[in-house]
Write a sequence for this structure.
């Protein structure tokens, strides 16, 4: 039997309709954001998610920053206790705003991101993912992002947190830009590869060129009116393994095909598990 108990995680984004509310923390705004019923009123609270994960046999969790209803120490401590009680690791805190490649606001955004390190520590998170940048990938924009990431990574490492970036937004449109930043930072920053952020004819070749360097993976399935595109999903998993990826797969369900989000999450898990069992030695 292949032990897959530590190979899957869930992002709170996959439960955004069940959670309903968001709290849009923004750089430059020190006030606590008001609750927004972005996806409806919701049926669960964030602190319920670790127990739901354990009940569904998933023992790793990623938390989107905009799902945190409070950053007060007591709430963060209570959430950490809930995760520990459920036996669920907080794998990553996903910091969902900021642009390190903007020469006008990059310093402000870097300082704002640095403030989330203490939140990651309080939650017991292993990693913190930040947005590398949203500017076009000019040499100047990439260099600026690299400088900010280097300092952020040092602060995070001092606190015991691994800083990671993602193949996401305009600054990282392809493998060349991803490799440039990772090479420039010489191991100080890790990569969270994402199946769903790149599209087009070169998607599979491009993912194959970066997934060997990934430490984490957002395994986002593509759904249409006919359901999960299992061929695409399987191909992404197979190419990642062939490239050398051996980390956890964070299940990203972003569709209304299944009204119950856990049904979509578990369908994705089963698809990946079948691939991993088929290729096991």
């Amino acid at each position: 039997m292949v032990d897959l108990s530590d190979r899957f995680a869930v992002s709170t984004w996959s439960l955004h309709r069940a959670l309903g509310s968001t709290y849009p923390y923004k750089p430059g705004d020190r006030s606590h954001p008001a609750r927004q019923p972005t996806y409806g009123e919701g049926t669960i609270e964030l602190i319920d998610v670790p127990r739901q994960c354990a009940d569904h046999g998933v023992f790793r969790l990623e938390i989107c920053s905009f799902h945190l209803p409070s950053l007060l120490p007591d709430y963060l401590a209570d959430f950490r206790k809930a995760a520990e009680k459920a036996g669920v690791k907080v794998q990553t805190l996903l910091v969902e705003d900021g642009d390190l490649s903007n020469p006008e606001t990059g310093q402000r955004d870097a300082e704002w991101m640095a403030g989330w390190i203490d939140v990651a520590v309080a939650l017991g998170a292993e990693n913190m993912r930040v947005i590398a940048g949203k500017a076009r990938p000019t040499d100047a924009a990439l260099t600026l992002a690299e400088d900010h990431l280097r300092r952020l990574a040092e602060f995070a490492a001092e606190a015991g947190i691994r800083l990671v970036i993602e193949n996401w937004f305009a600054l990282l449109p392809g493998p060349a830009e991803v490799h440039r930043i990772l090479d420039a930072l010489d191991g100080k920053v890790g990569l969270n590869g994402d199946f769903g952020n790149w599209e087009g004819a070169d998607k599979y070749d491009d993912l194959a060129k970066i997934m060997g360097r990934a430490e984490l993976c957002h395994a986002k399935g593509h759904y249409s009116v006919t359901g999960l595109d299992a061929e695409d999903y399987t191909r992404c998993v197979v190419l990642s393994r062939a490239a050398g990826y051996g980390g956890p797969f964070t299940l990203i369900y972003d569709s209304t095909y299944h009204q119950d989000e856990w049904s979509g999450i578990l369908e994705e898990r089963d698809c990946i598990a079948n691939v991993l069992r088929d290729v096991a030695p």
